[in-house]
Structures are given as C-alpha cells and as structure tokens.
Task: inverse folding
C-alpha cells in the first residue's frame, strides 16, 4: 500500500497542511500525525532532563539534538492501529508521509520506499514554492493554494517528468494549467501522442469502413446498353404454342458477355467512335502558332531592379562580389563549407561528359624574375610548331540565337594523400544577341536543367530567370553586351568529382629540405588533362636548388613551377622533386611547404554532369556553347 497521507508540520506551532487519499479517513491521519508530534516532544523532554542544568532552561518545543532532529527517518506510532511515519526535516518544517505498519515483514520495506519517494517529491514542491531551502511557515502560506494542489497530485502518484512540469508552473498565474497540463507531460516526453490527438484517425477509419461496406459500383450506361443489344440479337425465335408440346427442358444458363460490342460499332466504327467530329480551324491555327499556344503561360512576377545588386561573399578562398544573385547570408567557415571525404573519386564522374580539350598556352606573362634552372632544352611552356596568331586569336562563328554556357570551379585540399575537403561551384551564363541584331526586342525562352541530383544549393537572379518547377526555367531579359549570370549553384562534397589527385611529401633532415609532389589523373576522364601547372610555395629563397624534372623559379614570390603538357590517365603516378639547403635546422621545427595546381578545360560537357536541354524536345530556342571548368583553391599540404 502506497502513501496514505502527507502533512507539513512545523517545529513550533500547529500543522500547516494535511492531505489524505479519498478513501483514507482524515481522523486516522490526524491521529498518526499527532502521535508523531507527541513522540517528538517526549523524546525532546527526555533529552533535556538528562542534560546539564544550563540546558534545562531551553524551551521544550525546541528541536535540540533529539533523535528526530535528523534530516530524515521513519517512526512507528500508535497503539491499536499502528502507522509508519516517514519524515524529512527541511529547515524548520517536517514533511511527513503516513502509511500502515502491517504484520507482514516484506510490506513495511515496500511501503517505506514508496512513502519515502512521495516525501522526497513533496520536499521538492515545498522548496520550489519557497524558492530555496529556507523554508518557513510564512513562505508556505503565501503559496498555499499551489502547494495544496501540487501535494494532492504527488499523493496520487506522479512521475519525474510530470513533477518537473508541476515545479515549473508552481509560480505561474494559472492554477488550472498546473493541474490540467501535467497529465500529458509524460506522454509528450516519451514521444507518444495523446488520445485526443489521434482519436479522429480511428473515427475516420470506422467511417470509411461503413461507407465502403454500403457502396455499390455500377457499370456505365453505354456498356449496359451494348450488352442488352447483344442479348436481344442472340435471343431464339419464338413459336406459337399449341398446347401439345412437352414442357421445355431447363437449359443451362448461357453466360452473356456484357462487354460485347454492338452492331453500330461493328458496322460503322468511324462514325461510332469518332462521332462525326469536325476539324476546328481555330485549333489548327493555335497549333501552327507557338506564340498563341503559350499565350496562357504564367510567368513569375519579376522583382525590382534593386534585387540585382551584387552580393559580397567572404568565405576564405571564394571572396568577391557576385552581381545580381542571392547567395545567402551564411557565414560558414572554410572547414564548414568543405566536408571531409576519404574516397577521392566518389563524386560520380561520368566519362561520357568529357570530350577532347584544346590545349592552351599557360605562360604567365605577368610574373617577372623567372629563372630557367635547366640550361639545356626548350622552355617548358613553348608551343613548338604553333603559329602565334593561332594562340592569340580564337575564331568565333556568327551568333544566331541566345547562347547558354556553364562555368564551374573545383576546389580541393589534400593533406598528404587524404582528401580533407572539396567543393564544386558553378554559374550558368546567358549571352544575348548583340544590340544591333536584337533590334530592341527582349530575349525570352525556356530551358530544362538535368543532372541536378547532387546539387546542394542554388540561387537564381530572379529579375532575369523564373523557376517553373520540375526543372523548367524561363528567361526574359533585354540584350546586353556582357554575359549575364542566371544561376549560381554548389554541389555536395560526395557528388563533387575530382579530376586530379595530389600528394605532397617533405623531408627536413638537418639543414636540407626535400620536397616531392606525386600526382595521378582520374582514370574515368575520357582525355588526359593538358597544360597543367604545379606550384610549390617555398619557405625560403634558395641559394642552391636541385629539381627534377626542369622547373621555373620565381624568387620574388618564392614559387617553384612545373608545367606538365599532358597527364596520362593510367600508369604510374608522376613525381616532381626539389631539394635545397635551408638556414633552419630540423630540430627547431618543421618548415611549411604548400603545393598548388592550376588547370582548365573548355568543351561541350561540364564536370558536375549538369546538362542544358530545350524545354520542348526538338525545339531549341538557344544555342549551347562550350562549357568550362577550372581549378580554384586546389591545395596539398
């Protein structure tokens, strides 16, 4: 049997509160509480009589150091009807819990633990009501209604979740909220839904079952009419009855086909099925005129011109102003922008997305102070046998329609041979007709975007591009000389393919520093990367330098460059080595060496696999020109 009554009994003065269960007599609870008070006073008197004469002047009602002055305990009181009182002293108030003291040896222990739990919860209520352990009768009287209702709930049994809900609302203005909102607290903590929230589901199921049980499904009238006509055609001819005929034998019922076609359908199929439809001249005109067919097309309202203002991106490695596109306001760090991957080529690189590339001259004419370390041989970036005008002039066909192309940038960072972070971003550009050919007309067309399953986020320039959902986009803008950015997007790290894998190995032994870069191309590329430049940032300006193969040193920037004309798809990894003496000894700490790589591609396919398609198959309102992708922050540390 659990706790039968809870009482608040101060050390000095009358009892503050007594709560009992509905079926437990209040008189018996009062008798047990009074017996506890008498026992406490009796023990206090006996202790004072045996003390010294200086302590005899103290009040009999004082706590003193009697046995019941301990923080908690239990006491069996009563003569005929014995009760077990579990008490706990909080400052100057005893919190009492009353239960029966039966003859069973196991029951007292069970009751004592159950009552002790209820007493501890009552202590929490009193401490919360008094806002601390400084519990006094005056503070309890100020919050008497809240304490009364809370102890009533505790007496009937509450869990820890419901108790925390009671303690949180004990200083609120609404008492009904504390009582009525508590029963669902434990259910919400367990994640269960209360019955009023799911009762309508059961009612809907019963209503659906009754509705379907009484529903009847009939065939259409046309099908019934066709079946009746078929049955009338195959009915046997009737004869005149003379009275001498034997009674007809009951023939086996012939199964009729209710879905058989009538004579009207068999004899004149065109008239029955087509129904004499005539061609509509207006419909033919609409089909012939695409503008009339798209007359009802709703285009999203364009925002004002202020929406085209450039947005500054402050993420490390991607700083700059991006005009007219909303890129969001997330101030993510570089570590958050890149997510770590262990699989270097796990981004889903498709070999069919690449064709042959055109080699470009990557000679950096802006860098001064270059020194050729190898005296023999041709310069590494010399294009032998190629006329100068072919390197500087690119032939371009005449523009006949708006052109779309995609420019992508791949960023990656390797730590030794492990890929630490990777990011792929791209921009879709529109090149309109020249002003002299546009003749003041707006450029307007629709296109479809495919291969966007790995896209992480995308931002549209809403004053030029509208999203028609399901991968369809509509463009409407005036003609401009410069390419217009329509959309900027970024890909998930796991869907970002890597064209090249790098590894930087450095050894600092004494005053000699050795550096080696190993590189390998993605074997899924259809054609090797060409005109690739590897750069190593040196910690010092070397006085002596030994490199293999030949390289170019920029003393002003402390850079060492290798130009690789072509990287094979398969085969052993390439190696670039450099060795130099340094002033710092290896015992004083490691020197920082950073490797970088620069490459570019231009062709009809993208690195991410995104494809531009016409909105309608076979009807292209734009031309898709060469896409590009290049390396951004491609590092190896």
Result:
């Amino acid at each position: 049997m659990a706790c039968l009554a809870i009482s608040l009994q101060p050390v000095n003065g009358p009892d503050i509160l007594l709560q009992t269960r509905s079926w437990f007599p209040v008189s018996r609870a009062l008798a047990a509480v009074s017996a506890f008070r008498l026992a406490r006073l009796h023990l206090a008197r006996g202790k004072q009589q045996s003390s010294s004469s200086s302590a005899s002047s103290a009040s009999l009602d004082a706590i003193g150091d009697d046995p019941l002055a301990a923080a908690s305990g239990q006491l069996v009181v009563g003569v005929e009807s014995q009760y077990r009182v579990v008490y706990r002293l909080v400052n100057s108030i005893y919190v009492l819990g009353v239960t029966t003291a039966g003859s069973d040896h196991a029951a007292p222990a069970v009751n004592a633990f159950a009552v002790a739990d209820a007493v501890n919860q009552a202590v929490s209520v009193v401490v919360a009501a008094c806002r601390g352990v400084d519990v006094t009768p005056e503070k309890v009287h100020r919050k008497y209604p809240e304490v009364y209702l809370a102890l009533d709930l505790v007496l009937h049994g509450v869990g820890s979740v419901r108790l925390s809900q009671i303690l949180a609302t004990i200083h609120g203005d609404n008492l009904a909220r504390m009582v009525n909102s508590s029963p669902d607290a434990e259910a919400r903590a367990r994640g269960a839904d209360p019955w009023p929230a799911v009762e309508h589901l059961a009612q809907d199921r019963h209503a659906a079952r009754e509705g379907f049980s009484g529903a009847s499904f009939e065939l259409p009238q046309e099908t019934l009419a066709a079946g009746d006509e078929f049955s009338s055609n195959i009915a046997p001819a009737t004869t005149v009855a003379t009275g001498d005929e034997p009674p007809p034998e009951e023939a086996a019922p012939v199964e009729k086909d209710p879905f058989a076609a009538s004579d009207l359908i068999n004899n004149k199929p065109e008239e029955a099925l087509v129904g004499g439809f005539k061609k509509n001249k207006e419909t033919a005109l609409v089909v012939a005129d695409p503008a009339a067919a798209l007359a009802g097309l709703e285009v999203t309202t364009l925002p004002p011109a202020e929406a085209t203002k450039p947005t500054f991106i402050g993420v490390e490695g991607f700083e700059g102003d991006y005009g007219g596109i909303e890129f969001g306001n997330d101030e993510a760090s570089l570590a958050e922008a890149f997510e770590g991957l262990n699989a270097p080529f796990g981004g889903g690189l498709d070999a069919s997305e690449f064709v042959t590339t055109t080699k470009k001259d990557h000679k950096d004419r802006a860098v001064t102070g270059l020194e050729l370390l190898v005296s023999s041989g041709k310069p590494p970036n010399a294009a032998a046998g190629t006329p100068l005008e072919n390197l500087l002039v690119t032939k371009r066909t005449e523009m006949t329609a708006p052109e779309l192309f995609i420019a992508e940038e791949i960023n990656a960072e390797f730590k030794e041979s492990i890929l630490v972070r990777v990011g792929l971003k791209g921009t879709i550009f529109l090149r309109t007709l020249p002003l002299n050919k546009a003749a003041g007309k707006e450029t307007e067309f629709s296109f479809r975007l495919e291969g966007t399953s790995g896209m992480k986020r995308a931002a549209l320039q809403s004053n030029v591009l509208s999203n028609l959902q399901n991968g369809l986009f509509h463009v409407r803008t005036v003609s401009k000389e410069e390419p217009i950015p329509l959309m900027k997007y970024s890909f998930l790290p796991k869907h970002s393919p890597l064209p090249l894998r790098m590894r930087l190995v450095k050894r600092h032994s004494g005053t000699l520093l050795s550096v080696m870069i190993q590189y390998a191309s993605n074997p899924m590329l259809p054609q090797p990367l060409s005109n690739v430049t590897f750069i190593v940032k040196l910690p010092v300006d070397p006085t002596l330098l030994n490199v293999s193969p030949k390289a170019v040193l920029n003393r002003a920037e402390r850079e060492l460059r290798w130009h690789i004309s072509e990287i094979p798809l398969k085969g052993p990894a390439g190696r670039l080595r450099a060795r130099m003496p340094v002033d710092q000894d290896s015992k004083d700490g490691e020197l920082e060496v950073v490797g970088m790589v620069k490459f570019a591609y231009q062709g009809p396919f993208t690195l991410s696999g995104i494809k531009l398609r016409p909105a309608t198959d076979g009807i292209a309102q734009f031309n898709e020109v060469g896409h590009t992708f290049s390396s951004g922050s491609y590092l190896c540390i």
